[in-house]
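Internal ticket - ligand job 419, aspartic acid:
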Amino acid sequence: MEKKKISSTTKIFIGLILGAIVGMIMYYLIPDNKIKNDIIINGAFYIIGQGFIRAMQMLVVPLVFFSIMDGVRSMGDTKTLGKVGVKIVVFYLFTTALAIAIALTFASITKPGIGMNLVVGDNKFETNTEKVSIADTFINMIPSNPISALANGDMIQIIIFAAICGLIVANIEEKTETIGNIVSEMNEIMMNMTLGVMKFAPFGVFCLLARTFSTLGWDVILSMLSYILTVLGGLGLQLVLVYMLVLAVFMQINPFNFLKKYLPVMEFAFSTASSNATVPINITTLEKMGVDKKISSFTIPLGATINMDGTAIMQGVAVVFIANAYGIELSFSDFMMVIFTATLASVGTAGVPSVGLITLTMVLTSVGLPTEGIAMIMGVDRILDMSRTAINVTGDAVGTIVVSKMEKYIDIDKFKSKI
Ligand code: ASP
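stdout (structure tokens):
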């Protein structure tokens, strides 16, 4: 009898759900003891979960470097690269601004935090965010030492250095044939490694979820329900009103078909809460859908660094929540200011867990809200961090698909095919 194969999407999904259930059982039904805490939660779950994230992180820098260099080399001209660059940055910024506008509108309707009557000074929260000027932000994109950029995983610097190397290799093709081949083969190796590590995803995802859910502060979550539901609602609206609509109108596909194929990436982003760690699986999954790596290898890491629509939504809702909780009235121009600063904050948020909370200080300060309000939302941030990261990476993917279609770097038939 023929054995029915379970798809990797389903396997990861099962890992995710089982992990959440096991974690909740651990939290509610199993009393604290040494075996539960030291051997299971902080032993097995921690080792397998973090081991899996580290294996994925191991791939990010070499994959980004070699795939950009190889992509730019085979694209071969600065004009296409420039066009892709401008289009993707415009898409990323525009959808982020839209995300915050959606969040602010939605939160103005649901009114989270109203009636909490907090007084400034009630909470303690301090951050030591360094201020970097806009001029320095641009200067910092140029790697003064490419090796340290690679060692530190500084994505923008790596993108720039790899793109320059790729362009030069393309320009003096006859003298750089060997390097061209090496880069292309290294790229193949990294892609294969990604697929290999992904085989462990169901177990990794299970352990990550089980550990998170067994240590989550469920009581705090209940008390902050209005805020949590508003953020989740905002994320859902962005998915449906922006991404799915763009795919339906611009790509003329059934967006659910896209979601079905794309789900493993969202699940992975959800369990790791890191856009950076999701870069390899995002590129490989899009490639399987028909999106040429020449574009995605450039736009996905860029998006993981500068495009955080989910984070921007959380920040928009947090602004309204904190204003309501402290009884502070926000004007229309405050809202405009929030759209502006949260878009910048999204660019400045690194694709690693919980950085969105730190950059939130910048947004709150811009409209004179107390940053100590962050102390309240901190306790429930993990679950929202996971959810917003899933939206962050989807935004990168949708932008990539749109630009790939514009530049004709997508196999439309493959993209539209059902799984
Ligand atoms: N965890 C998010 C990401 O990696 C960033 C954040 O909002 O904290 O995309």
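Auto-summary: The pocket of aspartic acid is lined by residues 273-275, 308, 311, 349, 351-356, 385, 388-389, 392 (CB under 6 Å). The CA atoms of residues 9 and 265 lie 9 Å apart.
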